[in-house]
Specification:
The protein has 151 residues and is α+β, with helices and mostly antiparallel strands. 22% of the residues lie in helices and 40% in strands.
Length: 151
């Protein structure tokens, strides 16, 4: 059974996370951000956006892996953009939990993956979800492009 004091401590901790300074990740230039938001999938590649458009959990960076390799970290209102070869690709979000999403990417198609932030027991949790173009575009439009190193 929870005591009133323990519930107040949990609530105070949650408020601290919500109101803390924002985590930062390396950001792309404004020019690159605008170009990425207006991009179309080329005929031979799939265009994939993974975005985190929520302010909840803003003090926490969330690790993203793509096909078994570290891709970077998201922060509040940020996104990744990748041009990927057709085929199956695994996206993984590592927080208090591990959320996996497999996408069978088709050439010439655009995909939007939402990294939803959820409250966990000790920290933030996440859930990766493939969303439709209308919802995905709105999420990307209010977010900023994360700088990534080309391979």
């Amino acid at each position: 059974m929870y005591t009133r004091r323990s519930l107040l401590l949990v609530l105070a901790g949650a408020m601290l996370v919500i109101t803390s300074a924002c985590a930062s990740v390396p950001m792309a230039s404004l020019e690159m951000d605008m170009k990425a938001k207006n991009m179309s999938a080329p005929q031979d590649k799939a265009l994939v956006y993974l975005y985190r458009n929520e302010t909840f959990g803003s003090a926490i960076k969330m690790t993203v892996n793509l096909d078994g390799k570290f891709a970077g970290q998201t922060a509040r209102k940020t996104y990744f953009m990748w041009l990927l070869p057709p085929g199956n690709h695994e996206f993984v979000s590592v927080t208090e939990n591990t959320s996996r999403l497999n996408v069978d990417a088709k050439a010439g198609q655009t995909y939007y993956i939402w990294q939803e932030v959820k409250m966990g027991m000790w920290g933030a949790r996440s859930k990766l979800q493939l969303v439709d173009k209308a919802k995905g575009k709105k999420g990307v439009d209010v977010s900023k492009l994360i700088a990534t190193n080309p391979e």
